[in-house]
Design a protein that fits this description.
Blueprint: E1 5-9, H1 15-22, H2 28-36, E2 52-57, E3 60-70, E4 74-82, H3 88-103, E5 109-114, H4 121-127, E6 131-141, E7 155-158, H5 164-174, H6 190-198, E8 208-213, E9 216-226, E10 231-239, H7 248-262, E11 267-273, H8 277-285, E12 289-300
Parallel strand pairs: 4-5, 10-11
Antiparallel strand pairs: 1-2, 2-3, 3-4, 5-12, 6-11, 6-12, 7-8, 8-9, 9-10
Helix pairs in contact: 3-4
């Protein structure tokens, strides 16, 4: 008869061991940075390690899972990792425990980003009430000489606090008819969305742009800067419906590339929904190349918008 396995919130003395297990695909430096990032969350958020669960058998950690809280009322599920052989039942119990604890907080959603080669986790997530919302393609562009798109010629106003309401409104309009991860729209307030964007990388307001044309707000262009790796990421680009089909997307993308060159970035990165064919063609024409893929699963909670 096998020894019983207990599923519980990780006791403080075992946290270092559990984090090392569940984040074992990261470097030690990345593990430290990932845990440290949770210390900057609002008071109402799920505490950093409240949803770190472990499976313990004979006083030893056999598996661990973590729902890591994120700014903007979201959380990221780091799937169960096992010290030895994987166990479907234990993995299911861990995911259910972490999901339940996250749902008890103010989080609007819990998402998991899974490697395409992972055939173990997806069915467990689906059984726990998650939905597959997108296949993401990760693209990169190496800054170099490029021909800037000049037609049309929108105006780009760098972000400041006085533009927050205008930026919120225009982002909300850009969601209408969007082909990029449409299942994620309206799960959170626009304030939560902006908070999440602002927490990505090292926030630099000069890399956030409100886009205007002919006196109207027509789009948003948001980039994040990662000083440690000297990389920029295009975290959001959107155009209101009335301004689409006029070459505006190419103009915004050119501005993003120009900002990357200005910052002497080694790379400009982005992620795009594989189902968004028009955006993929735009990025391909601009010289972006795919370097990885992930599947995104999401569980929404009733506390969302």
């Amino acid at each position: 008869m096998s020894a019983p396995t207990e599923i519980l919130v990780c006791p403080p003395p075992l946290r270092a061991e559990a984090i090392k297990l569940v984040l074992r695909d990261l470097t030690p430096e990345q593990q430290v940075a990932t845990v440290a990032s949770t210390a900057r969350l609002p008071e109402k958020s799920l505490d950093g390690l409240d949803a770190l669960f472990v499976a313990i058998c004979q006083r030893q950690i056999t598996a661990a899972v973590w729902a890591q809280p994120q700014p903007g009322r979201t959380a990221t599920l780091w799937p169960p990792q096992f010290a030895g052989e994987s166990d479907t039942d234990v993995a299911s119990e861990l995911i259910e425990a972490a999901t339940r604890r996250t749902g008890e907080s103010d989080a609007a959603m819990l998402q998991a980003v899974i490697e395409p080669t992972d055939t173990f986790t997806p069915n467990l997530l689906l059984s726990a009430g998650f939905a597959h919302v997108a296949k993401l393609l990760y693209l990169e562009w190496l800054p170099k000489h490029f021909e800037r798109s000049m037609r049309p010629v929108p105006q780009f106003e760098p972000y400041h606090s006085g533009l927050r309401e205008s930026l919120k409104q225009v982002i909300g309009q850009t969601y209408i008819g969007s082909l990029d991860c449409p299942k994620l729209d309206h799960l959170r307030s626009l304030d939560d969305v902006l908070e999440g964007y602002q927490a990505t990388g090292d926030f630099d307001p000069t890399m956030w742009m409100l886009v205007r044309a002919e006196g109207h707000d027509v789009g948003a262009l948001l980039l994040a800067w990662f000083a440690q790796t000297q990389q920029a990421e295009l975290i959001y680009m959107g155009i209101v419906p009335a301004a689409r089909g006029q070459g505006m997307g190419a103009a915004l993308l050119s501005q993003a590339q120009a900002l990357a060159i200005e910052r002497r970035a080694e790379k400009l990165l982005l992620a795009v929904d594989a189902a968004n064919i028009p955006a993929r063609k735009l990025y391909q024409r601009a010289g972006f190349r795919e370097w990885s893929q992930r599947n995104v699963y999401m569980r929404a909670f009733s506390g969302g918008v």
